[in-house]
Amino acid sequence: MKNLYKASRIIALALLVVNTAYAQSDSTNNTSSKSIIIDDDKSFKIVKDNKDDDDKLPRAFGGITFTRIDWGFSRIMDDGAFSLSQDNQFLEYKKASNFGFDIAQFGVRTSDNFKTYISAGFEWNYLRLKENIIFNEDSSPISYEPSDIAYSKNVFTTTYMRLPITLEWRSNKNRKGERVKVAFGAMTGVLLKGTQRLKSKENGKQKFKDNYSLASFQYGPFIRLGYDDFGIFAKYYMNDFFEKSPAQKNLNNLAFGITLGF
Questions:
Q1: Looking at the predicted structure, is the pLDDT value of residue 217 above 80?
Q2: Domains delineated in the chain
C-alpha cells in the first residue's frame, strides 16, 4: 500500500507539472529558476530558486494536494443500532465500503506540532444490496420497486464533495524522522449524485443516476490516528441518510478503515 500511495502522489504531481509547465520554463533573460515541490504539509507548490519559508512559524499553507486517502468499511446505523428496522429492510446489504481523498487544502501551521486546515475532496459510499429492488427516480420520499430479476450485482452509491475542517497534532520526529499524528474535526459534504448499478443475465449492466432523496448535505465528527504516512480513521455522519423520508429518520452512516498519506 505504501507503493500505491507513492504512485498516486507521482501521478498527481505529473498532472500538476503538465498544467503548470509554463511556470517552470525560463526565458533567456531570466536567470531565476522555479521548481515544484511537495511541502511538509503535503501541498504541491512552486518555489523560486529552491527557496522556501517553511521554517517561519506561524505560516499559511495550501494548494493542490493528493492525500488523506480513506479506504474502508461503512455501516448503516438505524436509530443507534446496526440492525435495520422493518421500514428499512430494503437497504439490507452484503457489503458496504467507503472511499475518499482530498485534492486541495488551505490552513495555518501555528507550530511544528499543531496545524488547522480546511480541505476539499470527494467521497463515495457503496452499498451492495441483498434485495432485488430498483429505486424510483424523481421520488420523494425514497421509494423502490421489487424486481423479478435476480441481480448478480446491485450496488447503491452515494457521491459527495467533502469539505472537512481539521485540527491536527503531530509529535516531534523520532530517529527515523517520522511522527505520530492525531487529527480530528468535522467532516462535511455536499451531495453530487446517487447511482444504482445493476447486473443481470437478462439485462446485462445497467446504471441509473438520481439524487434518490439522499441528504443534500452531510456532516459529522471524524478522527484519524497515524504514524508517518499511514493511519486509521473513523467517521460518523449525524445527518439522516435520506431527507424528506420520515420512515428513514435517524438512519445514519458510520465509516472506518485505513488512511494513506496522513
A1: yes
A2: 56-260 (2.40.160)
